[in-house]
Predict the structure.
Amino acid sequence: MAQFFYILTHLQEVIIPLFNWFGNWSYLLLFLVTFMETGLIIFPWLPGESLIFVAASLAALSPTIKISILVPGFFIAALLGDLTNYTIGTKLIRLPGLQKRVGGPRLAQTEAFFKRYGLLAVIFGRFVPVIRNFVPMIAGSAKFPLRKFMIGNLIGVTLWVSLAAGLGYFFGSIPLVKEHFSLVVIGIVLLSTLPAGIIYSLRAIRRHIIKKRQF
């Protein structure tokens, strides 16, 4: 865990040697990480917007790394990742064991939720770490229309990549950011987890209130 946290907060020390060793193949590795973080629910711990931010920041500093390749690459990787995750959701729901667990009232509630908030959930879920790993799969299992999912996915991914890459490229050239790069990355990670923390806290408070009313 300590090694992972070190890598997460020193991504610049990983990415620059990566390009020195593997050249243009490094882009593929970065895009693969984004695809796995987005498309496979077993990898929610992989860096998301922090990776895009750092890569874009380094593109502002190093002529070796091209922002013109990073942005479309991250966009395609995240888009395909969400689509893969959605497809997994449509297939998993057919498994008898999973149907018993999430079928019936739970699945009906999920389907009702996506009918009401589906598009917004797909768009804004993209900005919440961990949650974004499950939204596409839940959308698929809840039979949320693929066309609507792709519209939300397109909007969400466009905003997500544009903001992370745009801010990274802009701040990458600021001397203060260069000097405290690790602290900036930690700040981004903490800010990105803030919405999930707020949602968890509100749910805990709600459960506590319901419990109190029952007694």
Remarks:
- Residues 181-214 form the longest helix (34 residues).
- The CA atoms of residues 92 and 98 lie 7 Å apart.
- The mean pLDDT is 75.
